[in-house]
Amino acid sequence: MTDIKKTGPADEPPASSATAAAPVPEAIRAIPVRHYGRYVSALVAIAALVAIVYAFSQGRINWGAIPDYFFDDRIIDGVGQTLLLTALSMLIGVVGGVLLAVMRLSKNPVTSSIAWFYIWFFRGTPVLVQLFVWFNLGLVFEYINLGPIYKDYWSSFMTPLLTALLGLGLNEAAYMAEICRAGLLSVDEGQTEASHALGMSHAKTLRRVVIPQAMRVIVPPTGNEVINMLKTTSLVAAVQFYELFKNAQDIGQASGAPVEMYFLAAAWYLIMTSVLSVGQYYLERYYARGSSRSLPQTPFQKLRATVLSVGRPKGGIA
After folding, report:
1. Res 154 pLDDT > 90
2. Is residue 316 very low, low, confident or very high in pLDDT (cuts 50, 70, 90)?
């Protein structure tokens, strides 16, 4: 019988010393990419900013007049009137926008067509033109006659405040209608069908199911509309309503410092819009619950995390 010689790992020749001592690969040296365009754009932006600051510093501007009138009674009263007009106009706009959105989505062709025409008309004409139309309707109608309810001269009825509310509020309703319509359409139709299957009426379905879910889509653009409305209130100075811009304009004409008072009004607008922006952030964060796994940190939480991380070793526990 022939013996078969089996070979295995033990019979293999030993590896050579050259193979055992393999050369270690050289470490890769990473060279960061240089973004020269960023450096150039930053230098251009800084140079433009310095040029603007220098130009205003050399201008004939009485900067001392701004702090002198910053807390003047007329300015503070104008700030209050601006905030009041913003709140009332947005109230009219939001209520009217919700009604128009529901009418726009209605299966009734009459109500849907009326809502479409309203939105088309008020979005297609400037706010300033609408304000002048409301203010000068007294040239067309001598009286306003509501029968036994109310009757008066149009000039006495259409006060600057009412003109401002109608001009701003009705115009805002057209924009809010599209925002609300987009929010209502963002809710899945299955939610409405399930509610109707449970016996809920259409109005109750909107109130209990659709609108709460649509708020996540409606709130962010509505916050932008509030800030925009705050700035748009400056237009009502053209119809003799004494808000912030109108009072600042009158003070500037009387004191001989009109440009300085415009800067003062701009500073107050910046303060108010900044406060509203903070409120908008927290409101959006509130309605974002449930739509994302983790809510973004608030500015105070980011500041706290930054302060607590100062002095802490990066590699873990020292």
Report:
1. no
2. very low
CA distances from residue 314 to 23, 91, 112, 301 in whole angstroms, order as listed: 34, 51, 62, 20
Give the CA-trace dihedral at 298, 304, 306, 308, to 10 degrees: -150
d(CA 68, CA 91): 35
The tens digit of pLDDT for each residue in 267-287 reads: 999 999 999 988 888 877 777
Tell me: the pLDDT tens digits for 23-46?
777 777 777 788 888 889 999 999
Query: Is the pLDDT score of 317 beyond 50?
Result: no
Which ranges constitute the DSSP H helices of the chain?
17-20, 36-58, 65-69, 73-104, 109-124, 127-135, 154-157, 160-185, 189-197, 202-205, 211-232, 244-255, 258-287, 299-309
Q: Which residues contact 158 (CB under 8 A, 6 or more apart)?
A: 134, 135, 137, 138
Q: How far apart are CA 213 and CA 291, in angstroms?
A: 10
Q: 250: which 2 tokens?
A: 């009158």
Q: CB-based contacts of 221: which residues, under 8 Å, 6+ apart?
A: 179
